[in-house]
Amino acid sequence: MSQPEGFNLDKARVRAGFARAAATYEEHAVLQREVQDRMLGRLDWIRMEPEQIVDLGCGTGEALDHLSRRYRGARLTGVDFAPTMVARARRRGRWLRRPRVVCADLEALPLAEHSFDLAISSSALQWCASLDQAFAEARRILRPGGLWMFTTFGPDTLRELRAAFAAVDGGTGTHVNAFMDMHDIGDALVRAGFADPVMDQEALTLTYPDLNGLIRDLRGVGVRNALSGRSPGLFGPRRLRAVAEAYAQAFGVDGRLPATWEVVYGHAWVPDAPPPSRPAGRVIPVQPVR
Fold it and tell me: Do strands 52-56 and 116-122 pair parallel, antiparallel, or not at all (unpaired)?
């Protein structure tokens, strides 16, 4: 399954946005950190002692620190497609036990098959051009009996911002990034061959004194419009003023502007039988902890 109809993801633009944001990401990632913490907290209910763990879309590597404390004997690997994010994630951990960090695309992982017991991904899958391909790669690198746990965002995410832009642009609103429905994501898990999928969602709302505060947070974590062919004048001062007025008029409460995020949580297991192998290519083997 690819991105929603009418939304052509420009991955080069996405990668450049996150590369520029590496230095400011942790300052602005209030929502992303909360979502990640809630996802990792769900591991409390799962009895497993993984030897090999990978974080797909690891960003600056905050989850790697959490996982190293939770699973002290595990070997950790982080993957991100922004080189500056990878450079920061590489500094995590202790000097003699740094995580292995790889700069790569989630849809074409240079990792060996059946290498990991646990794979996680938080707030990254919405940047994949094909969710089916990303899930197929997660399935490929997990061992039989392995766990795939992730978060992403649903279609109500930033609905206020989308509506405000649509009011100014005559009802299009296509420059605000699109997101997939939870049920479609669950169907993609099944197509990838995962077993016992569990999906749920919740709405989280942040409030801002003005539109500039929201945009600073979005840009601070690397979120920029990912629509291929976007007009270069999209975020001009005149248009932004008009959008801010439409936003405040439609959604403002007591001088604050709400920003809704529909958070989708999912996890599923790899069946005991291994998946079919893909054609041989360049891979990075991951050895068990000894």
Answer: parallel
